[in-house]
Amino acid sequence: MFLEGRLRVKQLRGIVTRPTHGGHGFQTLVVGDQFRPLSGTTSHGSFQLEEPLKLYESAPCQAAEGGSGRRNYELSVAWEPAWDPYSASIFFREGCALLRLNGKGKVSVVAGARNRSGGDDGVGTVASFESVRGIVSDGAGVLYVADECRIRKVQLPASWKAGASSRGSKSEVIVSTILDTQRTLCGLAFDSCNGKTSLVYSSKNAVYRVPLTSAGAGVPALLAGQGQVSKVGQPNDHEEQTPFTEIWGMVMDGEGSLFLADVLYDRGGPCSYLRKLTPDGAVTTISKLSCVCFPASILPNGCLALCAVKSVGGSDEDLILVQLGLKPPAYMLPQAAPPRPAASGTLPGDLGALLDRQPDGTSDHTVEVGGRAFHVHRGILAARSEYFRRQFENEFSDSHTARSTLNEADPDAFGLVLRHLYTGSVEVPPAKAQAVAELASRLLLEKLRDQAVAAVLADARAETVVDGMLWADAQGFGGLLASLMAWYLDNQADVVQRAGDSFSRLEANPALMRELLVSCAMNAGKAAAAAAAAASGARRG
């Protein structure tokens, strides 16, 4: 073991790593009163904190003339951040609420309330939490939360699955209690390394494993602690041969081993013993640290990240990076790069292949979108997009830099925009049609905007048409709004039966509601007149 790095961080509360665009890289975020990217976590060398992410409220606000229609999210302090591959989102605690941060930088409360504690199960904000000490994901649509003495299950909606269409679908989580441990929980991990799924949780001085079953949680079994003596990694430190005293959190590596901080208070001040717990229950002490700390994450480069909250001889809040050569969790393991496409002999095909090869050393500009980096060629973007041409001609402030940021945009949608710019065509999936239409309109790409708008209309369904009208009106897409309204009138009975609570959202747009009611009345009048005319003709006949 050796110290890889140490950084002072304000309000340090956790570390989380998420895949970058395309799944071929990772972004590590240092979490507290901000989400700050930490560079250098995929290699060995220097680490550096970058500018914090911009966060936005999930609910759209009334935009001023030329505004973006989004409000900045004012984060208090985020705790227990966890990456969920199922929804491609980060979940964290703020106050007593469970929140979600998606890839577009939007933050939303998904369960509980920031200023209301409790232990109620239920749907969405009806549920409540007491003191969340850990959040883990099974990667298949379920989060598990260590809440005071209980383990809570948070079932995510199917519409949140990455790539799924969410319009018109139920979008609230369901919180239920699966185990009351009768002990205050200090850490939680999800384990699927041995082919069977289980949760591992810790109390103050013991670690337990509980199998997961179709009915919920099985019977917990003691894994280590409560009088068990740890083996010592360094023979001279005989005084370390003690049971767990006070566990402060734990993380699991890709082989199923746990790394815990065991805190003691002695004459020299507080200290933490970093201990390793293998799947068979063997405990080994790795090192002694002169601070109170807790393990926060295992990084892609095999480092263990520790959050020091009460240092001796250092800052009160330090990020400590220790190189242990650990195997990261499965989602951080390098994926085989796809084979490079051969030249097609056509200009669109060759430019598409060039885009797929990035970064290959030929790009001369990087566009950051939602925390993801896209390596691009200025000449191509300037030739194909008036927006980027203006930017690179110094009409925008960042034209002479090798890096620019496109705020408030969906990174997946920007990937589709790039495909359009490089090749002249792109297939817009229904799940991304709205995001592509918004971004194409912003980037002055009329052809792509019209294509995406057409994809929204083609995907109109009884469950989604009301939300689609609200969105089209907010974006100023008058033609699409008229088409969706006509679709609504033609399928009104089906919409009324299947649209669910989307009707209630019309209350936020009285003008649209009034226009829709007038159209319905006129449509009913025309139908009545047509029926009367038909009846009159039948009588004359």
Automatic annotation (TrEMBL):
Domain BTB: 363-430
SUPFAM superfamilies per the UniProt record, alphabetical: NHL repeat, POZ domain
Keyword Repeat: yes
Pathway noted in the entry: Protein modification; protein ubiquitination
Single GO cellular component term: ubiquitin ligase complex
Keywords: ANK repeat, Repeat
Residue intervals passing through the bilayer: none
Pfam families, alphabetized: BTB (PF00651)
Organism this protein belongs to: Pleodorina starrii
Gene expressing this chain: PLEST002434
Protein name, entry field: BTB domain-containing protein
CDD domains, sorted: BTB_POZ_ZBTB_KLHL-like
Keyword Repeat (UniProt): yes
